[in-house]
Design goal:
Elements (H helix, E strand, L loop, with lengths): L2 H7 L3 H6 L9 H8 L3 H13 L3 E13 L1 H9 L2 H10 L3 E3 H8 L3 H13 L3 E5 L3 E5 L1 H7 L4 H6 L5 E2 L5 H10 L6 E13 L1 H6 L14 H6 L26 H15 L3 E2 L5 E3 H4 L32 H13 L20 E3 L4 H8 L8 E10 L11 E10 L5 H16 L4 E5 L5 E11 L3 E11 L1 H8 L5 E6 L1 H9 L12 H6 L4
Parallel strand pairs: 7-10
Antiparallel strand pairs: 1-5, 1-6, 2-4, 3-4, 8-9, 10-11, 11-15, 12-13, 13-14, 14-15
Helix pairs in contact: 3-4, 6-8, 14-20, 16-19
Length: 510
């Protein structure tokens, strides 16, 4: 069997219907008219034929003119200036208000009539008690013939703008100054070119007896025997189907949550609008000190204060820790703690605000492992690595005998498990609520070394007021956004939240 014969056998019924009408340079619109197929059927068949390298489809963008709302009305009933002139010719002179009333013209149409007719020296105007109009000899002559604008409106639309000449071009320029008479639109024209295979195929008889589908009825009654079935090319290039899928970053966060739960961690939660107490003061961050600058946040204008969820006994202990050290061997910060300031509302600046809530909770278990994924907010310069709102994943492990070696092991596990990298660095750092403190860095193939988060051992001045005793607590807060960039192969943090369809459709997710 020749290749052309095989091709004939593989044709879809729509392709068979349109092939007899194919010719070099024909448009999709012309094929609709010739084949009596619907526009969507023509386009499908042409796309299938293009996939089979039978035709090449060229797209042309053309600017065409169509009648707008007023243009349709004037084409049917006549231009208002002509009707104005006809009414005026009955008595030679009339009040403009009378003509407006008789013809039912709007103020805008009256102004256009007067402007157009004065320009053509068809009327004379006189202002006495009311504005009156008188028809001129030139106006009477205009009544006896069609204007360029009238002739233009009688055309068969749409018209290609590039085809306008002389009087039609003049009429177009005049009418486009007026409201809702004509409109310009861009029209896409699909034009067909036949390939060498296509030129051979249109000479073949394509209306052959083939069966397109193997149905259950054919199988039951055995009528499939002896039938010729349409062949399918399973290697042919077909359009991609973009099915619904979870947003890539949301899916990553859900995977992180599942992994933490599988490791035996319990999940904590807290509000995005926090008080300074849980966000900073409970974490032993001094109220009036530059140490708080690294956690600069957004203040809430109204309501400015909260604090109904702060237990009085916990507030008292935290206040004592700030002022005297609360029996931890520390002298505290040595200042007068402001109980009103601690109730100030802020947008949560870090996920550790949830840790402070959990440590003071009656549901805290010792030993225990806790984590949280939280949306946080801080003023920053937006670029490929920074954003003013971001997600953090943090938590803590509480138990007797924990030390910095346990923390290092956890950080290494997180980098390998969630960022899938073994190129990490753990460097000394400073956080006002941990001692010692460390930062976790990992190497991105394009962005280089990126800080993934901070960690450390909570200070006794933080732990004892909240838990009720001095016990080791190792804690971390990871920039989960940056960790997601490792996992998803992104080099811009904004791509985690963007609406780029190309990225959303093609980004690889396990």
């Amino acid at each position: 069997m020749t290749e052309i014969k095989k091709l004939v056998k593989s044709l879809h019924p729509l392709e068979r219907k349109i092939l007899p009408f194919l010719a070099e340079g024909k448009t999709a619109r012309e094929l609709e008219k010739d084949s009596k197929l619907k526009d969507i059927e023509v386009m499908r068949s042409l796309q299938w034929l293009q996939n089979k390298e039978i035709v090449i489809l060229d797209e042309e963008l053309k600017e065409v003119i169509e009648l707008d709302e007023n243009g349709i009305k004037y084409a049917k009933n006549g231009l208002p200036e002509k009707k104005f002139l006809q009414e005026l010719a009955k008595k030679n002179t009339l009040k403009v208000s009378e003509i407006k009333k008789v013809l039912g013209l709007s103020d805008e149409e009256v102004n256009i009539c007067i402007g157009s007719l004065r320009k053509k020296v068809a009327i004379e105007l006189k202002k006495e008690a009311e504005l009156t109009a008188t028809i001129t000899e030139q106006g009477k002559k205009l009544l006896a013939k069609e204007t360029f604008e009238e002739k233009f409106l009688q055309n068969k639309f749409p018209i290609e703008l590039g085809h306008l000449k002389d009087e039609s071009l003049f009429a177009f320029e005049e009418l486009k100054k007026r409201k809702n008479i004509i409109k310009k639109i861009l029209v896409k024209t699909i034009r067909v070119r036949l390939t060498e295979t296509g030129k051979k195929l249109i000479k073949e008889k394509v209306d052959i007896d083939v069966t397109d589908a193997l149905t259950s009825d054919i199988l039951k009654n055995g009528s499939w025997r002896g039938k010729e079935f349409r062949s399918y090319d399973v290697k042919i290039n077909v359009p991609k189907i973009h099915c619904g899928r979870k947003q890539h970053y949301r899916r990553f966060l859900e995977d992180v949550r599942r992994k933490f739960l599988a490791l035996g961690f319990k999940e904590g939660a807290g509000p995005a609008v926090e008080t300074e107490f849980w966000d900073m003061d409970a974490l032993y961050m001094p109220q009036f000190h530059s140490a708080r600058d690294i956690h600069a946040g957004y203040r809430i204008k109204e309501p400015k204060y909260g604090g109904k969820d702060i237990p009085p006994e916990v507030l008292k202990k935290v206040k004592d820790a700030h002022q005297t050290g609360h029996g931890t061997g520390s002298k505290g910060w040595g200042y007068e703690f402001d109980e009103q300031k601690t109730k100030t509302h802020v947008l949560r600046t870090h996920d550790t605000a949830i840790s402070s809530r959990m440590l003071s909770s009656s549901k805290l278990e010792i030993p225990g492992k806790y984590f949280q994924i939280a949306r946080c907010f801080r003023p920053d310069v937006i670029d490929a690595k920074h954003s003013v709102d971001f997600n953090q994943c943090g938590g803590f492990v509480i138990d007797e005998g924990l030390n910095f070696a346990h923390l290092k092991g956890l950080l290494k596990l997180f980098a390998e498990e969630f960022a899938e990298t073994d190129q990490i660095k753990i460097r000394p750092d400073y956080f006002p609520f941990t001692e010692p403190s460390a930062a976790l860095f990992a190497k991105h193939p394009e962005l280089g070394w990126i800080e993934l988060g901070g960690s450390g051992i909570f200070r006794p001045e933080l732990v004892k007021p909240l838990v009720g005793k001095d016990i080791p607590v190792i804690a971390w807060g990871i920039g989960i956004d940056r960790m997601a960039m490792f996992k998803l192969g992104l080099n811009d943090i904004r791509n985690l939240y963007g609406h780029d369809f190309e990225l959303l459709r093609n980004i690889k997710m396990e």
